[in-house]
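Cross-check.
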Amino acid sequence: MRKFITLIAALLALSSCIENDIPYPVVELDILDIEVEGATGEPTIDRANRKITVDIAENIDIRNVKITAIECSEGATLSRNMIGTFDMRYPQYVILSLYQDYEWVIVANQTIDRRFSVVGQIGETEWDISRTMAKVYRRADFGLDTVTVTQLRFGPKPEYDFPDASTLRDFSNADHTQTAIVDSYGRREIWRLIVEPKEVQVDVTRAVAGAKVIWMKAVGIDGAQTGFRYRQKGVEQWLEAEDSWYTSRGGVIEATIRHLAPQTEYEVIGYAISDKGEQLSNIITVTTTATFVLPNAQFNDWSVDGGTYYPYLNPESAWWGTGNPGSAIAGINLTTPHTENLAPGMSGTCAQLWSQQANVLGIKKFAAGNYFAGTFAGISGTNGVVHFGRPYTLRPTALRGWMKYNCGTIDCAPQKPNPKVPGLGEPDRGSIYIALGDWDYNIYGGTPESPVAVDTSKESSFFNSTNEGIIAYGEIIYRESKDWYEFTIPLEYRDFDRTPTHIIIVASGSSYGDYFVGSKQSIMWLDDFELLYDYE
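Predicted model, tokenized:
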């Protein structure tokens, strides 16, 4: 018996010297979907940052939000139970584990329609939610002892019980403050409402120049006649901004001054006309920018190397890219020059984007016809890697061009359906989108020239309109066939405080091609792209 125990001990000692150097496979784990009671739409899943955001209706108690279902990558285990009720004022962290650990965060976004405004108000209400405080500025000559509150709301009734606004009139105390008690969900909030007198009655808060426009914003007197004037520097006469250029007038004034000359110095001023006369802001001087013409925008420059088509004459002049270097492994070109049935008035060639199913090493994979600002970066297994973006620091207003589309019926899709994309038998979808942003290539995996890397083997890298680096965005999605027509994609600016560093333009005959979903009959033709710098 003792010999047997000694033998077992020796074997155990020997086994402790054996190294297990077989590497575990790297399997990225994602939260694929989440169901939350009171959600107002689909969750936003940011796989690059492992973050999921859920918009919650304003009549939901944010401290007691119920998660009813969560779907994760196959095989993943969660570090905590995420089914139940959570205080979503705070981010909820969870670790997904299989061979490696991945930390995800779930965030709730609740927009409550809070309102506090008074007669004679200047500008927008300032809210400090964490301190339950709201402040407005009012014309100093109106006084503070008889203030008329025109709006008072802290959330949806009946969940919130509001005070009577007519009882909040005297703000002439030392702090210019009144207190409002708000009851909600059995809890009491005490709000501090401040009405501050202000001598300045119109103040320009934004004057951002493009090449032919200036985006303006100012705060003025609520109820007064407000607006902007502008002139080229050195010219005596002021010009009035046209009525159609305004998106808001009153306490907040927003307008886009148009039809300006590039690289020219202009002066702009805000005004408010009330019973006390005309009040003017300080004069702001801004200089419009240059314009930029897209390279090879008529799609006439092509070269061929080893049977593969490239949308440029030589690599040194490359600005556009395609998936052709990847599909060349299967002996096909997704994007090629096309000379027949061109757009009205066009000559030379256009670009033909043909979605196809490639056979790579005996594996059939669907690939969308595509054309993009950037470069094809290489192959990862049987998947393509592209780098989106080109350096660009201007602010255009739209992308214009010609497009024709043959919309096929989806006949290619992975065996396991993806609930986020259309399935077999549904119409395919073509798309063209443009984005301006300040993407850091260290974060997005690309290069200084083309900062955003997209790897079709990693869903977390797929580009979409919720990308945090986006400053301005515009998109058209096609769900049916169209003959040649001239399209215009307006750019919607999300942030005027950030300056673009790059531009991304992507066209695809099958917009879900990253998921290997689309139709072999889908073909898109493109011609004569142009960046616009003015509004009609």
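The radius of gyration is 30 Å. The CA atoms of residues 160 and 229 lie 43 Å apart. Passed to J.P. for a second look.
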